[in-house]
Amino acid sequence: MKPTCSDADFINLFEQHGAAETARRLGIGERRIHERRARLEPKIGRQLVPPSIRTTRVGAEHAARLRFDIKNGVAIVGSDAHIWPGPMTTAMRAFVKACKGDFLDKAPDVVVMNGDVMDLSRISRHPPIGWENHPTVADEIEAAQEQLHKIELAIKRSCKLVWTLGNHDARFETRLATIAPEYARMNGFHLKDHFPAWSACWSVWINDDVVIKHRWKGGQGATRANALNAGKSMVTGHLHSSKVTPLSDYNGTRYGVDTGCLANPSHPAFTDYTEDSPKDWRSGFAVLTFHEGQLMQPELVQVWDDNHVQFRGKLHRV
Description:
This protein is of the alpha/beta class. The chain folds into two domains: about 1-50; about 55-315, 4-Layer Sandwich (Purple Acid Phosphatase, chain A, domain 2), CATH 3.60.21. The protein has helices at about 5-25, 30-45, 50-55, 90-100, 135-155, 170-180, 220-230, 270-275, and strands at about 65-70, 75-80, 110-115, 160-165, 200-205, 210-215, 235, 245-250, 250-260, 285-290, 295, 300-305, 310, 315. Strand 13 and strand 14 form a beta hairpin.
């Protein structure tokens, strides 16, 4: 990439305005901004941090919590993509279309990848099962970068991209911290270094009464238990079940939501450790619509067949 401004000016632009606005001001694509950022960081001996991450960071690796206000708008939440090299799943293709606003009333204001974006089975703490055919960490990261970049291209400029960390995502830094702790804080040793457009955190709070995080309670009653014990509407993944559970009491109605999985339930990563047993899983994601700051009944997009998803009583080709 031929620089369109000096390194010092580029650093100043990036850290004041972030990648999207820097790209707009320089009249180039956002991918080229991230490419130049990656080349500059080793040169200057530190990371370039966009304002959306710098102002919310707790600790060096990720923010504990990010908060957004949505008065009248939409957030879409997809979990458990478990991305491997190869074609995008039906649910992921639909997710990208939803990021553009396709088959929704409007384009989203916040897009959340709610954990386990990659599988990372090669560095699992569990004993290997059929690991010979599993992709390498580098292959998974490259595949995830490619698919998440499609989301980055699909969103409107003001949309926020957030990655709430999952237990599979945590394998990346856990493995490195275990075998090479001396390299902590070096560029490339944290998962977020490889996905600079995404703000990493443990949870997302919207309007103080909706919490999005990868997991909390387990079992068949997890969605109800989450809403009951949190005292707030809670959106999780992890269990891959795709369902909405309302809970009403003297405080009104709140919701426990399981977004399902962006992966195909027949994904080869799942076959070995489930021993090819039947799975009460469904592929899709969740749409959260807010009216005057209040969460309306959460909606689910669910895969119908290889080329269609169902949403609001219609089949949408993806």
